[in-house]
Amino acid sequence: MDTKRMFTLSQVARHKSKQDCWIIIHGRVIDVTKFLEEHPGGEEVLIESAGKDATKEFDDIGHSKAAKNFLFNYQIGCLQGCKIQDDDNLFMDSFKESIKAKEMEAFVIKEDPKPKYLTFVEYFVPLLAAALFLYYRYFTGALQL
Ligand code: HEM
């Protein structure tokens, strides 16, 4: 499939029937004719947008990432004069952002909510109390004998 082919709006507008249905999404010209019956959202919505730019409608639905990547299978070209984001993935920006966020997370020094001395007191005090108790019992027991 030649995704570098350029189409004008009026060229795309000619393909607006169920037998020949093109739509534009994010500057990409998509031939959805073979996808009409498969579309989980129904063929009507695609036919309604046939020959037109359906970017807003597509985005408004909140399509999954899988759906977004699926779109590339049907791309036949680009809209003339449109700047296409990245080469192969129009959702690369959000992907890059999530990677960046993860990288930043690694640099954030997470503060321990508990001060170190509290951890020490937590374990040391009960141990000391137990040792003192045993010591006391040992001596009082020894004195009673
Ligand atoms: C080639 C373009 C398109 C592809 C590949 C595509 C793909 C999909 C997929 C895979 C789903 C299932 C849900 C998900 O994974 O997000 C879906 C649902 C849906 N799509 Fe599309 N879609 C396209 C274009 C459109 C357009 C242009 C519209 C609206 C005009 C639309 C409206 C819907 C609706 C209403 C649903 C149902 C959402 C739901 O049930 O929650 N789709 N689409």
UniProtKB/TrEMBL annotation:
Parts of the chain that traverse the membrane: 117-136
UniProt-listed SUPFAM superfamilies: Cytochrome b5-like heme/steroid binding domain
Domain Cytochrome b5 heme-binding: 4-80
GO cellular component term, pick one: endoplasmic reticulum membrane
Keyword Cell membrane: no
Subcellular localization, as worded in the UniProt entry: Endoplasmic reticulum membrane; Microsome membrane
Keywords, in A-Z order: Endoplasmic reticulum, Heme, Iron, Membrane, Metal-binding, Microsome, Transmembrane, Transmembrane helix, Transport
Keyword presence, Ribonucleoprotein: no
Gene Ontology terms, MF aspect: heme binding; metal ion binding
Coiled coil, from the record: none
PROSITE patterns: CYTOCHROME_B5_1, CYTOCHROME_B5_2
Topology class, membrane: Single-pass membrane protein
PANTHER family from the UniProt entry: CYTOCHROME B5, CYTOCHROME B5 A
Family: Belongs to the cytochrome b5 family.
Protein name: Cytochrome b5 heme-binding domain-containing protein
Record organism: Capsicum annuum (Capsicum pepper)
